[in-house]
From TrEMBL:
Key words, A-Z: Ligase
AMP-dependent synthetase/ligase domain ranges (all copies): 35-396
Domain AMP-binding enzyme C-terminal: 447-521
InterPro entries xrefs: AMP-bd_C, AMP-bd_C_sf, AMP-binding_CS, AMP-dep_synth/lig_dom, ANL_N_sf, ATP-dep_AMP-bd_enzyme, DHB_AMP_lig
Transmembrane segments: none
Single Gene Ontology BP annotation: siderophore biosynthetic process
Protein name from the UniProt record: 2,3-dihydroxybenzoate-AMP ligase
CDD domains (alphabetical): 23DHB-AMP_lg
GO molecular function: 2,3-dihydroxybenzoate--[aryl-carrier protein] ligase
Gene: entE
One of the Pfam families matching this protein, by short name: AMP-binding
């Protein structure tokens, strides 16, 4: 049985195959190509692993999972941080056709619950070093709530029975892979979200593999590539743009950093002679501050290319990179749903500094829509509409949401406001979707509002973005309540619901009522104006 998903129409699927985009090979081909390569594939804080070892360990884990009854059509919930095991597990699951959701390490109870409810996993792979899995309390509850779960493996487990390391070292004579068909779901990506529940994005082998090969070509990754993965390993950007999978495809080396701080990364860059890495804009600011403070960018002398994406990179910040970090900038405007835009390595400075690049495939179809759905000419701002050989056709199990997110011709509306230059480059101008982009980390307003409304004293709540110099945006919750509620208590309330820390509102403002638009929706635009010079909203304390 394979996972249900919205497939591309036949005529486009045929075109994508004819043009050589879809090659009908499973994603494990990325590793098979390097199976006899004795070069180091990845390095984390615990040690290094060659391609041959990665192939062997993922085979062993795949065999161990198979012996425990896992089989094609099953799903898995995985939560691992920036550690080598992430890719041992990823390839092992692909090898036996088990379809994973890779939760971010920052995710907590609410997110894991939501993913498990949606995919009904047979397998859970988690880490004892994560707060939720330090002891068995949450695990026992979780297993009780999700009867589909048949097997659990834990990184750092004490008992052999549930030890991920023990499963990975189970020896076996031979192993034959049985991945899902290349035009079927390989794994789920996580949507940044704009609705109450985090949405899942089915990615097929064919579409994802194409996006990786194309990224490798655009960014010129090869066996000389030494890539630092400083962002969360499960995010689409460091996975595939070109990210770790691009590094593996090219036979290069990936080094895993625990976080994107200058303190951690500069050392790793120097030690491993890293030549490319990917950051979000706030991390760039912090790196520049560190260089100023330490009076030198010496540690970064091996760095040739810095990719920046996930959130809008301001032109002033962009302009400092070449001089102060001492390497080339590449802007990346991508989304877990598919479409990725890059500035090209030989673009002129003006395009690199002032645009977010252009789509990587000649068959990415992209246009700008006005409110009535008409196509707008270059220079005008409207909604981004796109479809193409690696852009998904529907969120998992979400017919109502899909009806809104796609037009009749299968174009996905990402909720971004963009304009196109005369020569086809994209400029991100803003956003329509009800989401806060907190330095690249996405917060769906509705998800947090629903959690706030669970508080007995909260009558109404609205989460909006407020400008922030470092993060680009931070989040502010406007609360309607009959009693005075202190910020720490509100944060505690949200923490008790178990959500990722980055989703906690940075600020709370109590108001008498929430302003409404003429059609009766909460007027978030007006709320956001609170942060501009004059406050039109009558607030009463914080
Ligand atoms: C990446 O993926 P997601 O799924 O976390 O977020 C996608 C959204 C976009 O729709 C856009 O709103 C925003 O993040 N975004 C940018 C941006 N890159 C992403 N906004 C302005 N400028 C940029 N350069 O964030 C992602 C996935 C693959 C590669 C890179 C980023």
């Amino acid at each position: 049985m394979s996972i249900a998903f919205t497939a591309w129409p036949e005529n486009l699927a045929r075109l994508y195959r004819e043009r050589g985009y879809w090659i009908d090979k499973p994603l494990i081909d990325i590793l098979t190509r390097q199976a006899n390569n004795d070069h180091v594939a990845m390095i984390d804080a615990a040690g290094s692993m060659t391609y041959r070892e990665l192939e062997k360990q993922s085979n062993q884990l795949a065999g161990a999972l198979r012996r425990r009854g896992l089989t094609s059509g099953d799903t898995a919930l995985v939560q691992l941080g920036n550690v080598n095991e992430f890719y041992v597990v990823f390839f092992a699951l692909l090898k036996i056709g088990v379809v994973p959701v890779n939760a971010l390490f920052s995710h907590q109870r609410t997110e894991l619950q939501s993913y498990a409810s949606q995919i009904k996993p047979a397998l859970l792979i988690a880490d004892r070093s994560h707060a939720l899995f330090g002891d068995d309390a949450f695990l026992d509850t979780f297993l009780g709530q999700h009867p589909s779960l048949r097997q659990v493996a834990l990184r750092g487990a004490q008992s052999e029975e549930q030890s991920l390391a023990a499963w990975i070292s189970e020896q076996q004579a031979t192993f034959t892979a049985s991945p899902t068909a290349a035009d079927r779901v390989a794994f789920f990506q996580l949507s940044g979200g704009s609705t109450g529940t985090p949405k899942l994005i089915p990615r097929t082998h064919n579409d994802y593999y194409y996006s990786i090969r194309l990224s490798v070509e655009v960014c010129r990754f090869n066996s000389e590539t030494r890539y630092l993965c400083a962002l969360p390993i499960a995010h689409n950007y460091p996975m595939s743009s070109p990210g770790a999978l691009g590094v593996f495809y090219g036979g290069g080396q990936m080094v895993l950093a625990a976080d994107p701080s200058a303190l951690v990364c500069f050392q790793l860059i120097e030690k491993h002679q890293i030549n490319v890495t990917a950051l979000v804009p706030p991390a760039v600011t912090l790196w520049l501050q560190a260089i100023e403070e330490w009076g030198s960018n010496q540690a970064l002398s091996s760095l040739k290319l810095l990719q920046v994406g996930g959130a809008k990179l301001g032109e002033t910040l962009a302009a400092r990179i070449q001089n102060e970090i001492g390497c080339q900038l590449q802007q990346v405007f991508g989304m877990a749903e598919g479409l990725v835009n890059y500035t090209r390595l030989d673009d002129d400075e003006q395009h690199i500094l002032t645009t977010q690049g252009y789509p990587m495939s000649p068959d990415d179809e992209l246009w700008v829509a006005d409110e009535q759905g008409n196509s707008l000419p270059a220079g005008q701002v409207g909604r981004l509409m796109t479809r193409g050989p690696y852009t998904f056709r529907g969120y998992y199990n979400s017919p109502e949401h899909n009806a809104e997110a796609f037009d009749d011709n299968g174009f996905y509306c990402s909720g971004d406001l963009i304009s196109l230059t005369e020569d086809g480059y994209v400029k991100v101008e803003g956003r329509l979707k009800d989401q806060i982009n907190r330095g690249g980390e996405k917060i769906a307003a509705e998800e947090i509002e629903n959690l706030l409304l669970r508080h007995a004293d909260i009558v109404n709540a609205a989460l909006v973005s407020m400008p922030d110099e470092l993060m680009g945006e931070k989040s502010c919750a406007f609360i309607v309540s009959n009693v005075e509620l202190k910020s720490p208590a509100l944060r505690r309330h949200l923490r008790e619901q178990g959500i990722a820390e980055f989703k906690l509102p940075d600020r709370f403002i109590r108001v008498e009522r929430l302003p409404l638009t003429p059609v009766g929706k909460i007027d978030k635009k007006l709320l956001r104006q609170t942060f501009e010079a004059q406050s039109p909203i009558k607030t009463s304390g914080e």
